[in-house]
Amino acid sequence: MSSTNSSQFQPITARPMPGRRTGIVAWLRANLFSGPINSLMTLATVALLAWSISHAFDWAVARAVFGAHLEACNNARGLGACWGVIAEKGRLIVMGRYPDTEHWRPVIATTLMLLVVGASCMPRFWNRWLPLAWLVMLAVYFTLMKGGMLGLTEVPTDQWGGLPLTVMLTVISMTLAFPLSIFVALGRRSTMPAIRTICTLYVELIRGVPLITVLFMASFMLPLFMPHGVTIDVLIRVIVGITLFSAAYMAEVVRGGLQALPKGQTEAAATLGLTYWQTQRKIVLPQALAMVVPSLMNTFIGMFKDTSLVTIVSLYELTGALSLALNSDADWRPFKIEAYLFITLIYFVFCFAMSRYSLWVEARTAVSKVR
Amino acid sequence: MSAQEAPIIRFDKVNKWYASNGYHVLRDINLDFAKGEKVVICGPSGSGKSTLIRCVNALEEYQEGQLTVDGTVVGDDLKGIDRVRREVGMVFQQFNLFPHLTVLENLILSPTWVARTPRNEAIDKAMAQLERVRIAEHAHKYPLQLSGGQQQRVAIARALCLKPKIMLFDEPTSALDPEMIKEVLDVMIGLADQGMTMLCVTHEMGFAKAVADRVIFMDQGQVVEQNTPEEFFNHPQNERSQDFLSKILGH
């Protein structure tokens, strides 16, 4: 053995791996054509895709009618899409029952709201002006939408609808529900029995009923408990319902993150003399929330679409406005599919943006974990 | 131990049971620790040695007896516990650094938030501690970018930032690769030379021989034997100590 050991160490310089491993051909060979069965499946899938895409293209583009021509649409029924329904009913679907002449108001208000929300999503804008910006934005939003002052005609809240309503309900409910969910999650893990019981009861009760029930109760039963003559605006009732509902689910998500944190973190914080709230704020919540970003964004994205249930209280947000627009008009009612595809695209754009934002947040919070 | 000075830590007939299964984990512990004394606590796993030192800064509660640390009785009184925790620093086996903060932020967190030291002053003091453990060049890295030995040294520096009177070490080198153990032990020896009161739970017998004034051997929740390192390692008197030593000194 000793003859192979020498005191002179000859280092071997690293060299690149042999064989073609990069490039598109290599990728195809490795992933799609790696064996006979795989290759067969690839060819079958490609054939299926080709067939369905060509048919879809046929329906959606080749034989479709692109103007609001009712007769042409009727002739093309079953063969081609009638995108004219969007031209005809699009504004009604997107804006709901908001008066036609005042449509500029929801557009400006919603754009402003989305801008402030977008800014809040970027840590670069997290300074002391942000709460002020929110207050100003909310004041402007509700003044513009409601009207009744500054020369704007009043638009009662039950006429607000369409996409602006969906956005507003989601933004306000999520903004209120998120901090509430953190407190409830911490409360469920509290050592004080009263707090723990209240938080557990709240979560279990709300999770035991569908959102539609919560909205129904918030809307119809709440006024029964109010003194005679006091009415709470329907939007407030609905926002309270959605907020309480989402907070219960998000609280469980946050609690999962809190549980996943190693106990040593709170012990180390304790030995350093940090108080409970200091520990939560600086040590526990940053790590716990970073862990559950995918789950939380999942809840947000779900709630954005769950707002469609407010139809039960006669508020016509995006989905409700579609039913409103098409159910009453026998001419255009057969073309619901095209209209649904239209709002599907709108929902997709928003939800995909939220997804991407989620991935961006995950990438940012992972920086400290990269070795 | 001088007769005039009161012990800085006193365990007086302390007993602890685990709430979950009623196991009697600490049995009639009567121990005094003097200021500036360096004590190594060793014993088989499950002997209660970690639980013992975790009682000192109230990470564990005890049910019977009385534990006094630097004049304060450690009990249910929250203010008392806060006071004790400011005087007692702890280093854990798993380091327990805060991974989402840089090394420097880990160190200045407590001084700025608890002691309310101004930020710049806290940074200067933190850098001084990092120099002391020879890791100042990594101040702006995140803990997970450092090796185990480096992380443990940061953890020691973090505990030292509060200028504690007592340092507790709970198996500080047990989670480290062998080649990194020396750098951490060197820091601990340096600390000992500067007169710090230290309670170490460790299996590093070389460290015990170099630095300890006293070695305490625990088994099944009881103090079985305590002696100077020379006496304990060379002439263990109890059968259980002899058994334990034969197992760990073999390799």
What does this structure look like?
The complex is a heterodimer of chains A (371) and B (251). With 371 residues, chain A is mainly alpha-helical. Chain A has 15 helices and one strand, in the order H-H-H-H-H-H-H-H-H-H-H-H-H-E-H-H. Chain A starts with 23 loop residues before the first helix and ends in a 6-residue tail after the last helix. Chain A has three domains: 38-82; 84-98 and 155-361, MetI-like (MetI-like fold, Orthogonal Bundle), CATH 1.10.3720; 100-154. In chain A, helix 4 crosses helix 7 (162-188). The mean pLDDT of chain A is 89. By secondary structure, chain B is of the alpha/beta class. Chain B is built from nine helices and ten strands. In chain B, the strands form two sheets. Chain B has a six-stranded mixed sheet, sandwiched between helices. In chain B, a hairpin with a 6-residue loop joins strand 1 (9-17) and strand 2 (24-33). In chain B, helix 3 (103-113) runs parallel beside helix 5 and helix 4 crosses helix 5. Chain B is globular and about 55 Å long. Chain B starts with 8 loop residues before the first strand and ends with a helix. The model of chain B has no long low-confidence stretch (mean pLDDT 91). The A-B interface holds A 262, 264-265, 267-268, 270-274, 278, 282-283, 286-287, 290, 365, 367-371 and B 57, 59, 82, 85-86, 88-90, 92, 94, 96-102, 109-110, 113-115, 142, 144-145, 158-159, 162.
Second CATH tier, the architecture of the largest domain in chain A: Orthogonal Bundle
Number of strands of chain B: 10
**How can the largest sheet of chain B be summarized?**
6 strands, mixed
The CATH topology name of the largest domain in chain A reads MetI-like fold
| H/E element order of chain A | HHHHHHHHHHHHHEHH
Number of contiguous helices of chain A? 15
> What does the overall shape of chain B look like?
globular
Weakly predicted, low-confidence segments of chain B: none
**Unreliable stretches of chain A:** none
Q: What letter string, H or E per element, gives the SSE order of chain B?
A: EEEHEEHEHHHEHEHEEHH
Mean pLDDT across all amino acids of chain B: 91
